[in-house]
Design brief:
The chain is of the alpha/beta class and 581 residues long. Strands 3-2-4-5-6 form a five-stranded parallel sheet, with helices on both faces. 51% of the residues are buried. The chain is 41% helix and 20% strand.
């Protein structure tokens, strides 16, 4: 049954509430620990038992961090890295152009700098060179360096790695590996085919962090000391959230601790980025994914490929300020380009039908730097894997995003092995591909078949999932602070969303461009303010503005609003429905 009887809300969605099993588990959590009901419902939905709850709310990195040596080639990689340090050899870091690649490179550069050694940063241009190592770049780097460390890339780059004659190559990656690995000194990757898969959820920056943990262990065994690794966790947290790695196990602890490090504002690049983004509160996982991450990415998408990595790696506040301002400007330009591609892609996808196992679109000249973001928007809209492709000449370059439980990377890799793609790879939640124009339709049809077998397309695209119901008076600061203890929230651990049932709208007005500010009450003294961004882009804004005394069910997320030195709770309103009866 639809939750609160809402089969079709003002935005056309069906509301889905907690299952009976979640309800029972939440009652057990309340009885065992006295948690507020809202917190208990969220923990139960996340599968946390009463016995696990105290440890879950206070995750300790020392308890959750895996032994780096559980990954193949880890000892070899760290030993070669330290050998280069000891002999003051020339090191190059070849990084992907996204947040994970930039953060991974910055981790190595900061660590080496604290040990008195510099490193060359190389980030390929998305359009001219494409993703990952290429033979000319690797050949040039090998001619001038003793060690090349490839981060967030390289696992499938056999030809390019072979071109690095005269230098050792170490790969620290997390993308799906093939049947064979490149011939190089070491390949550390939890998604190698000969790995157990226990750490498959790590992003590349977390793999780099584990390598630095192993390097620290080897240094201690030799009677030496390395840099403070805890101070580097802000970079690991940023990469984990921005690369949509699932926030479970050690990832959750890395992000939670990394947010604390970031809150201390010690890294010039992240401080400058937060300031240009006008971030005036303590950072949360939301800010990593939707405020800071897109700005770091903007250089790799439509501007200078290495700008994000250089920002994260710099120790110079003035240099950081200039780069952050440039990235902010590029991000604004990126949004404009993205909006045009998104409108065209959505229209095309709607013509094909948004209820298929795969939602896809391809267009002439669509900028390769924004197709991934547009794919993400289509995925969010439809609750289905999405692929968006920019066509140029005889080829198309595209990017895909997946939903929980559907492994897009392995399907794209298989599609390439079957000859329907020129190349393709990725991980569970995201993938990149290159396809011949004359094979586009056949490739997407085959990909749709493969994803359907994994269950893609079975969930309702219009379902809005709710953790439960709250009275306006129960939505207080204590509850929000308790809910934050269950975070960080993101991929694999969606944030809490509640319904305010049968609410009276006591105040409503339009603010900014198409946004709605409201206040509601329950007639019992409880009052809650809310904001709905973009409410007037659809029917919700007008319906609530012109409520005429009618009562509504409201749905959204609770957040702390800080204004004029006052902290209060507000509802980030996402949906509403008339309250019947």
């Amino acid at each position: 049954m639809a939750y609160l009887g809402v089969e079709s809300s003002l935005t056309g969605r069906r509301w889905v509430g907690p299952t009976s099993e979640v309800e029972r588990q939440s009652e057990a959590l309340v009885q065992a620990h006295g948690y507020p009901r809202g917190l208990a419902l969220v923990l139960a939905r996340l599968g946390v038992t009463p016995a696990e709850a105290p440890g879950y709310l206070e995750p300790k990195l020392r308890d959750l961090l895996p032994d780096p040596r559980s990954l193949r080639d880890m000892e070899k990689a760290a030993a070669r890295f330290l050998e280069a340090l000891r002999h003051r050899q020339k090191i190059a870091v070849f990084a992907d152009y996204d947040v994970d690649g930039g953060s991974s490179a910055a981790l190595l550069i900061h660590w080496l700098r604290q040990m008195g050694l510099g490193a060359t940063l190389y980030v390929p241009d998305r359009i001219d060179e494409g993703y990952g190592p290429n033979a000319p770049a690797m050949r040039d780097l090998a001619a001038a360096h003793d060690l090349i460390v490839c981060v967030d890339c390289g696992t499938l780059s056999h030809e390019a790695i072979a071109a690095a004659k005269g230098a050792d190559v170490v790969i620290l990656d997390h993308h799906l590996g093939g049947e064979t690995l490149p011939e190089c000194h070491a390949v550390v990757n939890p998604n190698r085919q000969d790995e157990t898969g226990d750490l498959a959820h790590l992003c590349a920056a977390a793999v780099v962090f584990l390598m630095l943990v192993e390097a620290g262990r080897q240094l201690r065994e030799a009677g030496a000391k390395g840099p403070d690794l805890m101070a580097l966790l802000d970079l690991v947290a940023l990469a984990t959230v921005a690369d949509v790695a699932p926030l479970k196990g050690v990832n959750r602890a890395l992000v939670q601790q990394g947010l604390k490090v970031m809150g201390a504002r010690a890294r010039p690049g992240l401080v400058a980025l937060a300031d240009v983004a006008k971030l005036d509160t303590a950072p949360s996982s939301y800010h990593l994914g939707y405020v800071l991450g897109p700005r770091v990415n903007a250089g790799g998408r439509i501007g200078q490929a290495d700008l994000g990595a250089r920002l994260l790696a710099t120790d110079n506040p003035h240099e950081a300020q200039a780069m952050a301002e440039r990235l902010d400007q590029l991000n604004t330009e990126r949004r404009d380009i993205e909006a045009a591609v998104r409108a065209a892609a959505l229209a095309q996808a709607e013509d094909r039908g948004l209820d298929a196992p795969l939602v896809w679109a391809a267009g002439e000249g669509w900028h390769p730097g924004v197709v991934g973001i547009v794919a993400s928007r289509l995925k969010e809209l439809t609750n289905r894997p999405a692929v968006v492709i920019g066509l140029d000449g005889d080829e198309g370059k595209g990017s895909g995003r997946s939903v929980s439980g559907v492994d897009l990377g392995v399907s794209v890799q298989r599609l390439a092995a079957e000859g329907l793609l020129i190349k393709g790879g990725g991980h569970r939640m995201a993938a990149g591909l290159t396809v011949a124009r004359d094979k586009l339709e056949a490739a997407m049809e085959r990909l749709s078949e493969m994803l359907a077998k994994q269950g893609a397309g079975q969930g309702g695209p219009s379902d809005l999932r709710l953790d439960g119901m709250l009275m306006p008076g129960a939505a207080n600061l204590d509850l929000v602070e308790n809910l934050e203890r269950a975070g960080p929230f993101g991929q694999g651990a969606p944030g809490p969303r509640f319904a305010i049932a049968d609410a009276r709208i006591s105040y409503a007005r339009q603010v900014g461009t198409g946004h709605l500010k409201i206040a509601c009450d329950d007639g019992l003294g409880g009052r809650l303010e809310g904001i709905a961004f973009g409410a007037f882009d659809g029917p919700m804004g007008a319906a609530l503005m012109n409520h005429g005394g009618a009562r509504f069910h409201l749905a959204g997320r609770l957040e702390v609003n800080e204004w004029g030195g006052r902290r209060s709770v507000q509802l980030r309103l996402e949906d509403a429905a008339p309250a019947a009866g």
